[in-house]
Every structure is written in C-alpha cells, then in structure tokens.
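Supplementary Methods, section 5.1.

A reviewer requested that the exact input to the structure prediction be made available. We therefore reproduce it here, unchanged from the version used in the analyses.
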Amino acid sequence: MKNKRKKSILITTLALLFTAGVILVTFFLPGDLIHREAKADSGDVRPVPTAYYAGPSEAIVKNASRQLTEEQKISLIYGEWESSISPATESERNLTEYEIVHYKFPVVSDYEQWYTWTAESYKAVDTTFETYAAIFWKCVFTRFDGSETLVYYITEGGTLLDPEKLPEDIQNH
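The structure derived from this sequence is encoded token-by-token as follows.
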C-alpha cells in the first residue's frame, strides 16, 4: 500500500508540475515571441515600396489649386514654375467644352460668318509636390468652309494666354 501511495503522490506531483509548466508557458511565451520579433525588426532598415507613397488625391489638388491666384496659375501654365502639362479629365476641370466656348468666347455668327469649334482641356501640374494644378483650354474656331481658323488658349478664369509662351507640344496638338 505504501507503494501505491508513493505512486499516487508522484503522479499527482508530476501532473501539477506539468500543469504549472503549461500555465507558465501560455502566459510568458506570447510576450517573449512578440519581444523577440520586435527586437529583430528594430535594427533593420529597408526601403519603403513606392506603392506606399500615394500622391495627393484629386480633392487635395483641387483645394490647393483654388488657393492660387490667376497670375500664379498662369505662371504654372507657362512653365515659370516647374510643371508638366497633360490632358485634363472631366472630373479635374470646372467647365465643360460648351461653357468655355460659349460663355468665355461668345461666337456671334450670321449666315456668312458661320464657325464650328472644338475645345480641348489641359492641366499644368507642379512637378515638385504635384499638389497645384491649373486648367486651361485650347479653343479652335474654324470657318464653315475651312478658309479661316482661329486658335485661342484660355484659363478657366477667363484669361487669354500667349501661345508663344506655351510649351511647343501643346501648340502642335
């Protein structure tokens, strides 16, 4: 009977030690693993993927661009600020083709002086932070028989632009 009692005490003691070990491991192991991973990553410097550098959103660009004066927008278009020019989308501009042609350049025509028109919108965006944009239009009026063509460049604010100061690739479009 003494043997059975010793075995029982030994089994109970081993079971308690095993249970205590499991409890200790479940409390301390996750924290220890987190500490090891944090310590391993703290000295490692890696370049950030370019996908993480999101450019300014369209809303930020529109808001920042509203704060520009008409002179600053013209400077941006002429390239006095470092800028790039590309076609503007419908959501980026404030006016439609019809509005820019008929409200800024009302073409009065009678039967003999009949003109057709086309309008293309462009945006000049600063290349430093890409947060400022200026929208301008190229309006082309053509006489009905094609004998005369008038080309105007105009900002959405209604300022006529000097075509000689514009980049050559815009003039050739």
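The two ends are 107 Å apart (CA to CA). These observations are discussed further in the main text.
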